[in-house]
Amino acid sequence: MNADTAIATHDFIGKEARYGARNYQPVPVVVDHARDCLVWDVEGREYIDMMGAYSAVSHGHLHPRVVAAAQRQLERVAVTSRAYHGTTLGPFLEKLCTLAGFERALPMNTGAEAVETAIKCARRWGYRVKGIPDGRAEILVARGNFHGRTSTIVGFSSEPAYRDGFGPFAPGFAHFDFGDMASVRAAASANTCAVLVEPIQGEAGVIVPPAGFFAELRQWCDRNNVLLIIDEVQSGLGRTGRWFAFEHEGIRPDGLVLGKALGGGLLPVSAFLADARVMDVFEPGSHGSTFGGNALAAAVALEALRVIEDENLVARSAALGGHLMRRLREAAEAGRPLVREVRGRGLWVGVDIDPSLASARELVERMAARGVLSKETHETVIRFAPPLTITRALIDRAADIFRDLLLDKRKSLAINAIASGAASGVQTCSEAGDRVNTQDSAPQLLMSPPDFFEVAYSINPWMNPEQWSLDAKRLTRDALAGWDTLRATYEALGARVLVKPAAKGWPDLVFTANCAVVLDGKAILARYLKSERAGEELHGQRMFAQLKARGEIDAVYRTPEGVYFEGAGDAIYDPLRRIVWMGYGQRSSRCAHHTVEQVFGIPTLSLELVDPHYYHLDTAFCLLQGGEILYHPAAFTEEGRGQIRALAGDLLIEAPAQDAAHLAVNSVCIGRDVVMCWCSDALRQQLEARGYRVHVVPLGSFNRSGGAAYCLTLKLNNLFKGRQREGEKLAA
Ligand SMILES: Cc1ncc(COP(=O)(O)O)c(C=O)c1O
């Protein structure tokens, strides 16, 4: 730091203090500029942004696509008011409604305005549809809520500091305890028109509701003709590892409030969404905002939504959120007993500090001094909500700094002598997924013998039926021997193998990974792109009907017509990151991810496959037991490689070109054993260095079709325990 810049810091803070109202108490960092997840102050110091402007910067700072959309629109028109139509509002609303599953959206600017819109809508609905006597409508709100700062909204806050001296307040609100259905019932009356609630209470300290509360609340609202309105201003648009946090609860609200990230980190853009039966209580003149839905805001918000989709930011939040949670828990454990609880969902974590030992504010300021930006809420909780574009490496850096800070604080309090076995009181509650460990149970694998296997047609560039027929006998023998060895290897490693009978005329039935993908007992059947394989679909249906009859599978789903999807070959479940990695562009349609998300209730991360030699994701991407990703970079776009790297961090193993060409990546990992059809010395060394044992089973005959161990195997007992969205229509 030189004297000039230090003076600059002091000056900027001083001017804000001198001329600004005193309604904020910022962390003493003067931000000069920022890019993506990094921020620099006027003294040139670099910070990792672990706060993301309270979720408004989910896209990272100045996302190039969002900035470009703004610049394009700034060349045309920015604000006309809603007195006229425009070219950006319609497309933005269409995209928003389609993504969120509502019929109508009403655009506003700030979150508080969108909440006000929801309140007005709910009351009108109460009078006009439910028949509540005029002026008597009541809305139930949770204690500990935060919905913004207008006088109506703070009027129903339970936080004295937000209300003190601002009354008189609007009547018509009654309180219940967040997560407690008995208190919802007690607060309700015949005049209750709506429940307005956050799915996770952010400002209150990232409070996750008890399991089942929202499902019960949904049922109660239905029974009592009460609207359920969910405020996802902070939790929405990927923050929790789902597009919307209500998806974790398996419900669909009647109204949805969005804001913050909708503005792509550039502008205030918010919206209230509902179906026509609710929204159509507004007629022209009944509600509005000069800037709401302006052309510039709509262009930015449309691009912001597209970026979340194109860059797989929802899956990224789910995957990296798990990592952030683990790392913060480790830090909390190391810093015992400073931390009482670590909780959250996706890339949104609250760390609850024991106030008798430290204040959250003090730790936040010290963390900033070490280059990590976070923010306290309510004296005791430190909030971490980085941009969804964060990488695993940056999370590690920030978590290391936080851990060191806790250790130093502990030392300064002279409490480092606490026995490590003593009850620290550190509670961890968060993603259900951390409780599900699929790795321990023996894998159940479906295989189909190569009784009729041959290269009968050429749907891959290297397939050559003539070559096969020249040497058919030997190749068939080789296929049978390879398949038997593969099965025996799996069984020796503790797997249970179920055998699906082969069928004459369908040589590729052996590739069971393509016939379906299975998670939580639910199977989604393939729909093949190549007509040569289309007949296999019927066998798949029969086979899975039998598996269901035998209790091996609970439910079977069909991929919608017009969508191609080649099963587990293009949908690889990642139990560590709690997402499904999906491949598209060769055999499966990009939109197949909708089916996977709906049926399994799991976020997906779609990767475009650009090389016909790697025509299924499993030919270039393999997950190992410890979360390592074995992959072949050339199969993916630069953007895809970037996404894989960002999520894998140091758990990335690059398959040499020679191994990838021999389909070594198409392997199966059981515990610390990796079953492969080929392995170079270089790759073997890498795997062994990470504690894996390599078993090579030559599968040359199958390689001729472009398949190897993974293709020949479908895992039936993957477990995730997601929830599908209520009301989704699926062909079961
Ligand atoms: C859940 C929730 N609702 C509403 C708001 C208000 O949004 P704004 O500050 O844009 O008015 C916030 C802001 O933090 C929020 O977290």
Percent of residues in helices: 25-40%
CATH superfamily of the largest domain: L-arginine/glycine Amidinotransferase, Chain A
Residue runs with pLDDT of under 50 for 5 or more positions: 416-439, 724-732
**End-to-end Cα distance:** 64 Å
CATH secondary-structure class of the largest domain: Alpha Beta
Class derived from helix and strand content: alpha/beta
- The number of helical elements comes to 23
Bound molecules: pyridoxal-5'-phosphate
- What is the fold named in CATH at topology level of the largest domain? L-arginine/glycine Amidinotransferase, Chain A
CATH architecture designation of the largest domain:
5-stranded Propeller
Whole-number average pLDDT? 92
Largest sheet: 7 strands, mixed
Percentage beta strand: 15-25%
User: Gyration radius, to the nearest Å?
Assistant: 28 Å
Number of strands: 31
How many domain units?
3
Biggest sheet: strand arrangement: 4-10-9-8-7-5-6
Question: How does the overall form come out from the CA principal axes?
Answer: globular
Helix-strand layout with pairing:
Elements (H helix, E strand, L loop, with lengths): L2 H17 L11 E5 L2 E4 L4 E4 L2 H4 L8 H11 L14 H12 L3 E5 L2 H20 L7 E5 L8 H5 L4 H4 L9 E4 L4 H7 L4 E6 L15 H11 L3 E5 L23 E4 L11 E5 L1 H4 L15 H16 L2 H22 L4 E6 L4 E5 L6 H10 L2 E2 L1 E3 L3 E4 L7 H21 L14 E3 L14 E4 L17 H6 L1 H21 L3 E4 L16 E4 L2 E4 L5 H4 L1 H14 L5 E4 L12 E4 L4 E6 L7 H9 L3 E5 L12 E3 L5 E3 L6 H11 L3 E3 L2 H5 L6 E3 L2 E4 L4 H9 L3 E4 L3 H4 L10 E2 L17
Parallel strand pairs: 3-13, 5-6, 5-7, 7-8, 8-9, 11-16, 17-18, 20-21, 23-24, 26-27, 29-30
Antiparallel strand pairs: 1-2, 2-3, 4-10, 9-10, 11-12, 12-15, 14-15, 17-31, 19-20, 22-23, 25-26, 28-29
